[in-house]
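Worked example 2:
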Amino acid sequence: DAILFYGVSPIFLTVVGLWFRWLKRAPLALWVQDLWPGSLDAAGFRVSGRLRRVLTGLVGALYRRCDQLLVVSHGFPAEIQAFAGRPLRCLFHPNPAEEAVYDAPPAPRTALPPFEILFAGNLGRALGLPTLLDAASRLADQPGIRFRVVGGGSRGAWLAEEVRRLGLNNVILHGRVPPSAMPDLYAQASAPLGSPSRSPTMSRSLPSKTGTCMATGKPLLVSADGETARVVSEAGAGLCAPAGDGAALAAAVRQLHALPVETRNAMGQAGRNYCETHFAPDLLAERLHTHLRAMASGTPAAAL
């Protein structure tokens, strides 16, 4: 009746969804997770002007051939429509919080040391790992503050070498863990950290773990521009520093650490409340069902 294609990079995988659209004669919804070719820049790849024009034209053609576009960030539609060369209907549909974290019982709220900042995710170039290391270096004189990095990826070995080279005893590399271990790690943390790299594309994006971090009920620290900083500020869920600015991130960590426990708890509760309204898994599953039924029935959907 309808086809949903989960549009992670590379966006050209959408041709599989388009093939099924032709085969089944059913409408196709593309759930856009990344902006191409800008996500290549965010990952550290440099694309020449001519190749960029070719990629942009191909991406625009893919967008135009879809019956519905779902976007995970309010920052996406302007670029999508520019690539497509005409107005396209875009519906805001963010990624939900991870269910295991969302459903976990509330974590204890204490002021016991150490003050631990948890950075969890794929350790790739699209994340601001140099910013994290810069902030950690500036906080090396604070024995009560430490960073825990959970995950693996293409820059895992580089990160381990940099931590060793810089002598950062306040950075703990936890490695990969199963998803079932994440609720406990978030419960033990004082604040989750989001730190995408500094780029125009990342400023338009809303990382999928934003809702999960808010679901923990802990105050957030973000080193980010644009949409991520807007959402965290709108929710009153934590403190923001500009992307790529290690000094500003270190200052935000010091500020959050110095706040009364009651203030930090209030930030965490504000984030949890915002998550329940915007990123709840059941809510977004039902909303996705509504989008697909409307598309299958030919009912026009409201634009973003």
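Strands lie at 3-7, 28-32, 68-71, 90-92, 115-120, 145-150, 171-175, 191-194, 220-223, 238-241. The CA atoms of residues 123 and 152 lie 5 Å apart.
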